[in-house]
Amino acid sequence: MTVMQTSLKQLPRDLDQNRLPRHVAVIMDGNGRWAKRQGLPRIMGHHRGVDALKNLLRCCDDWGIKALTAYAFSTENWGRPLEEVEFLMTLFELVLRRELQEMMAENVRIQFVGNLTALPQSLQAEIERSMQDTQHNTGLQFTVATNYGGRQEILQACRAIATEVQQGNLQPDEIDEALFSRHLYTANVSDPDLLIRTSGEMRLSNFLLWQMAYAELYITDVLWPDFDRSEFHRALCAYQRRERRFGKV
Q1: 0.90 cut: is pTM over it?
Q2: Each residue of 64-103: pLDDT tens digit?
Q3: Which pLDDT belongs to residue 9?
Q4: Which of 77, 115, 137, 206 is flagged as catalytic?
Q5: Averaged confidence pLDDT in the chain
Q6: Residue 142: what pLDDT?
Q7: Active site residue 29
Q8: Is 77 a catalytic site residue?
Q9: Domains, the chain, with CATH or none
């Protein structure tokens, strides 16, 4: 049974509803390579990448997955050509403005994580508006990691905890995993159960380093603009074939 042999909204019959990941994270890699293979400018790959993300968001909602986190822009991505970075910032803003009503209609709650203060002011305003407008939605939790770096996130959590200790509000022996997690950007979201990375790269690229401790990793050679429901179905099938023991026998 493949995803194409059933309703697009219906969970494929070879997937167990009770064994789906609650939270899926994606590293959306390969937009530029996809465009190059098509003989197109790199920006067209990013346009197609937005469409792929929208389709995955809808698929998660249709199939009962509760949370999706997408790695949209890393702290290292500032090193890309200036024209590409400026295009991406403009694209993020345009997509937010254009898609907000649809996210409201589909009951999606969106949040952004990362050092958002470094982003253009107009983009910061759109981010704030999207989070405020959707904060009471009760459907899919959609987290967008923007100007995000896992090491930087851990450092800022350490600094915040150290300040609390210095001020006498916290004792060192009170610091545990739960407290540390509450100081991360993702404090209100469960850790990912499944990480999908496209384009065949075998690394985390500074993404959710603390949160990925027990995530199942699924790497595919498919480039992100070509990642559709059929590919997501394959990823979920692979996930359900694994035995998640969390260090136990």
Answers
A1: yes
A2: 999 999 999 999 999 999 999 999 999 999 999 999 999 9
A3: 81
A4: 77
A5: 94
A6: 97
A7: yes
A8: yes
A9: 21-149+191-240 (3.40.1180.10)
